[in-house]
Specification:
10 strands; 4-stranded antiparallel β-sheet; Rossmann fold; 6-stranded mixed β-sheet; alpha/beta
Length: 240
């Protein structure tokens, strides 16, 4: 397994943001990681990416234990967080070369060319990141996550703020990446899940409430759309 999570928990004070969840993701899978706001998705992704420690439970990435081999695992994982932090005063190529050097990439120029071609930002390479549209900033963030050629990609809302054309282009890039990498992605857009993911994990209030293939979920729900399934599983009366 590329990712194996066993009874993973994260507590902030008295609140359990993630409560004893277990799942695994195999090489080559694109798995949709879904849930309403506050369900624990981003917290789980931050733990898997090595950004924050878990309170309890075990995580294995590419056969390595996260607690014991955090630095080694980060070399194998590419992470695009929801807020996509970038250095806006840096030029695109400058930022990506800097990122490659930090990641210890041997041939930074080759890595740069591969990343900007894959994410289709060749024409933007000489522009400052602060001059780019939201869509192109997302692409730069994805290129940053890819620059060290990781085995695993963790993508938190990769199409956030994109217009329909940009979102379709982003889906195409992610699907292409999914042919050779393991991808766990979070999104609120059900069309994206149906277009890219073969399997879905749904969280609610820190716990996994569904883990199945798209076909399996729809078969169990007697032909309902994924959006209907999601709402039926996570809609709490009085939650708004």
């Amino acid at each position: 397994m590329s990712i194996k999570v066993n009874t993973l928990s994260k507590r902030y004070g008295a609140q359990w943001a993630v409560n004893a969840i277990s799942f695994s993701v195999s090489p080559g899978e694109i798995v949709g990681f879904l849930g309403p706001n506050g369900a624990g998705k981003s917290t789980t992704m931050k733990i898997l990416a090595g950004f924050i420690p878990q309170t309890a439970g075990d995580v294995t990435m590419c056969g390595l234990d996260l607690k014991e081999h955090s630095l080694e695992i980060r070399k194998k994982v590419g992470y695009l967080p929801e807020n996509n932090p970038l250095y806006l005063d840096m030029y695109v190529a400058e930022f990506l070369l800097f990122s490659a050097e930090l990641a210890g990439v041997k041939n930074t120029r080759t890595a740069l060319e591969k990343a900007i071609e894959l994410t289709q930002i060749v024409d933007e390479r000489k522009k400052k990141i602060g001059q780019l549209s939201k869509g192109y900033r997302q692409r730069v963030g994805l290129a940053h996550a890819l620059i060290h050629d990781p085995s695993i990609l963790i993508l938190d809302e990769p199409s956030s703020g994109l217009d329909p054309n940009q979102a379709i282009e982003m889906r195409s890039v992610i699907k292409q990446l999914g042919t050779e990498k393991t991808i766990l992605l979070s999104t609120h857009i059900m069309q994206e899940v149906e277009a890219m993911c073969g399997r879905v994990i749904i969280l609610d209030q820190g716990k996994i409430i569904a883990d199945d293939t798209l076909i399996g979920l729809k078969k169990t729900a007697k032909g309902q759309s994924l959006e209907d399934i999601f709402r039926n599983l996570t809609n709490h009366v009085g939650s708004i």
